[in-house]
Amino acid sequence: MKLSFTGILFLSCAYHCIGQIDSSYIRMDEDQVAIKTFLSKNFIFLDQETSNRVNYSYLPNNAPNIGFGLSVNNTIIDFSYGYGFDFLRNKKRGKTDALDFQLHNYGRKFVVDLFIQQYKGFYLNNEDEDKMLLYPDLQIRQYGIYGQYVFNNKRFSYRAAFVQNEKQLKSAGSFLLGGGIYHTKIHSGGSFSHNEKNTFRSFQFGFSAGYAYTWVLGTKWFISASATTGINFGSEKFKDFGKYRIKISPTIFPRISAGYSRKSWSLSGAYVGNMVFPEFAEDSNIGLNSGSLQLTLIKRLSLSFLQEKEKPIKIPSILMRER
Questions:
Q1: Which regions of the chain does DSSP assign to beta strands (E)?
Q2: What tens digit of pLDDT does each residue of 266-319 get?
Q3: What pLDDT is recorded for position 16?
């Protein structure tokens, strides 16, 4: 049985202290319980370009997860597991052992993404399934945190697109400014090699900017897309900064969401990606593409039934007769 947490309990205190929003663009769903179920697939790909201009794409063969979530007054708990979905894996592509924790916290002004990914076992992308090359000893570990500031936070809502506890009433967009920190380690017993070494390490930090926009199609449909691009500054280890040449590489962070929403339920699909290049040089490149795909069904319930109704005060009949 494989467990994978794709969310965490968090209290969005800042959510209730956000100040004013433009109610003609965003509608907040207050006092609601949201129950959701979702099918998700987390992943991390390794793309390598060698000095002789040969490209290799190492892919994992992990099973998708089914998950359940609960949201009460913007307090969110997500839990998922992948037991029973091994039949969806192609046995010819080997087996991948994965621990993948991803947290995507969509606040009013700030968005925070946390990645803790440990994968072992990959296969080489090949159209011929009978000649599939397996790399069971290849291990990839990536730890990262990324943050974004949403400038037009009074009219544009990330939560409406990716959490669905708000509703975007009119099409709107926003400029984004962010940055992240990443630590990467790639290791194998001999199947993977970079600069004649079987272990590769990288520590990076950088800055990025971009734009997000949500198209509101009628009263029920929406499509949202965003992307930030920037540069990372890296070295093999954090303590090596300033001692050796600093490596500079690009980074791309895309998000896409689309869905159908009614008053009591909604259905949506979302993709969140993260593309970094721990090695970016003229003679060789290493790129990591990680993220998640998720299909979510949400049912909303009102909390009004929990509120105590005021009961009329009954005057005893004796007092009434005395009057």
A1: 3-4, 10-11, 26-28, 32-49, 55-60, 65-72, 75-81, 97-106, 110-124, 134-150, 166-168, 172-187, 199-217, 221-235, 247-261, 265-280, 285-302
A2: 999 999 999 999 888 777 789 999 999 999 999 888 766 445 444 454 555 554
A3: 42
Number of domains in the chain: 1
Is the CB of residue 114 less than 8 Å from the CB of residue 145? yes
- Domain residue limits at 165: 3-322
**Mean per-residue pLDDT of the chain:** 82
Compute the distance between CA of residue 151 and CA of residue 148 in angstroms, rounded to an integer: 10
CATH, residue 286: 2.40.128
* Distance of alpha carbon 48 from the chain centroid: 24
Tokens, residue 129: 């399934």
C-alpha 180, offset from chain centre: 14
State which amino acid sits at residue 129.
Answer: E
Q: Which two tokens stand for residue 266?
A: 């909604």
CB of 16 within 8 A of CB of 45? Answer: no
The per-residue pLDDT for range 185-214, each reduced to its tens digit, is: 999 887 788 877 888 899 999 999 999 999
Q: Is the dihedral of CA 233, 276, 62, 49 positive or negative?
A: negative
For residue 311, what is the DSSP state?
P
**Cβ(144)–Cβ(274) below 8 Å:** yes
> Which residues make Cβ contacts (< 8 Å) with residue 201, sequence separation at least 6?
184, 185, 186, 236, 237
Binning pLDDT at 50, 70 and 90, where does residue 10 land? very low
pLDDT tens digits for 215-264?
Answer: 999 889 999 999 999 999 988 777 766 677 788 999 999 999 999 988 88
The candidate with the shortest Cα–Cα distance to 145, out of 115, 119, 118, 103, is: 115
**Number of other CB atoms surrounding residue 321 within 10 Å:** 7
Contacts of 170 (CB under 8 A, 6+ apart): 24, 25, 155, 216
